[in-house]
Specification:
about 325 residues, alpha+beta, Beta-Lactamase, Heat Shock Protein 90, 2 domains, five-stranded mixed sheet, about 50% helix, about 25% strand, binds adenosine-5'-triphosphate, binds magnesium ion
Length: about 325
């Protein structure tokens, strides 16, 4: 705490200021307050001080400004300062309450770093599960087109499908960048989005797919619907790429007090739970679902097909 008179001189300083600054009260008393301000800020501070005396009111000093004070030993520390004017018999004084802001600033930096890390994670996931899978599907489609090079009508239809898919991927990318929901959900309910995903998947992979969705269950998902869409998209992409399945089933139903989403194929299966896969898909799925309070499991055995199961409390 420090009291500064209208002329800018220290009229009173408390013990805390002695500790913070390294100066004794005797050394501070009568000094211009700029004495505590690092040299490079002094001129500006003097101007602000004149401004304040002309128009005094209680306020935190320099909200969002980085204010630093200089100690006797020349080192500096960040400070939070609140000012309030006080009328006394000998004129106006300004009461400045000071606090060492080092810890607050460090906490702020830590929070900021954490937010950046979370953003990176989120963006990596969205790119992997959304855009990369979408582009992969376009690639598969174009590959299949090569084989049909003798049939111009089929080539034309596939090329126009590929262009549409690229447009969707671009729209999704834009949405991720702005932190919005994936494009497929932007103007749709979860059940419609899942139907559409399956339709696209069926068309591109040739795997006959049945869909069974309880609309009342689907309607209960708000923001978390995004996660369900992305997980389904990745699971279907895995079926297309790895399963060699002929049929698949996507269902979202209620079991007891939970919503259960299943993506089930009759393909060649694999041994889940084995490390060593360089893929991120399964890991992303698990993380997405656990982050929204659900459980994720994969059941698969060679020749028996694969079931990806997500359970979310309702
Ligand atoms: N439905 C499935 N049928 C058969 N094998 C599967 C199925 N789903 C996953 N796998 C196997 O599990 C592995 C890991 O899948 P994951 O999605 O994590 O990675 P990926 O698909 O190989 O790569 P990424 O998803 O990162 O592009 C796959 O490489 C594949 O061998
Ligand atoms: Mg995958």
């Amino acid at each position: 705490m420090v009291l500064v008179d209208a002329g800018g001189q220290v009229a009173y300083a408390n013990g805390l200021l002695e500790t913070l600054s390294g100066y004794s009260r005797g050394e501070l008393f009568g000094q211009l307050i700029e004495f505590l301000v690092p040299e490079r800020f002094r001129e500006l501070h003097t101007k602000h001080r004149f401004g304040y005396v002309a128009n005094p009111r209680a306020r935190p000093m320099g909200v969002n400004l980085d204010i630093y004070l200089r100690r006797k030993d020349g080192t500096e520390f960040p400070a939070d300062i609140a000012l309030s004017p006080l009328q006394t018999d000998s004129g106006m004084v300004v009461v400045a309450a000071l606090r060492d802001a080092t810890e607050r600033k460090e906490a702020q930096t830590r929070l900021h770093r954490l937010a950046v890390l979370e953003d990176r994670e989120r963006i990596a996931k969205e790119l992997h599960d959304g855009v990369i899978q979408a582009l992969f599907a376009v690639g598969m489609n174009l590959q299949a087109t090569e084989a049909k090079a003798g049939d111009p009508e089929a080539v034309r239809a596939r090329l126009s499908g590929a262009v549409d898919s690229i447009d969707v991927a671009i729209r999704d990318l834009r949405n991720y960048i702005f932190g919005l929901r994936p494009g497929i959900l932007a103007d749709r309910q979860l059940d419609q989005a899942l139907h559409l995903l399956v339709e696209e998947f069926q068309e591109k992979s040739g795997v006959v797919t049945a869909v069974q969705i309880d609309e009342r269950v689907a309607a209960q998902f708000g923001n978390t619907a995004t996660q369900l869409v992305q997980v389904t998209r990745e699971a279907l992409s895995n079926v297309a790429r790895h399963a060699q399945a002929t049929t698949c089933r996507v269902s979202l139903l209620q079991h007891d007090e939970s919503a259960v989403l299943e993506i089930d194929d009759d393909g060649r299966g694999f041994k889940p739970g084995r490390g060593g896969s360089r893929g991120q898909g399964l890991r992303n799925m698990r993380e997405r679902i656990e982050a929204i309070g659900g459980t994720f499991s994969v059941e698969s055995s060679p020749a028996e097909g694969t079931t990806v199961r997500i359970r979310l409390p309702l």
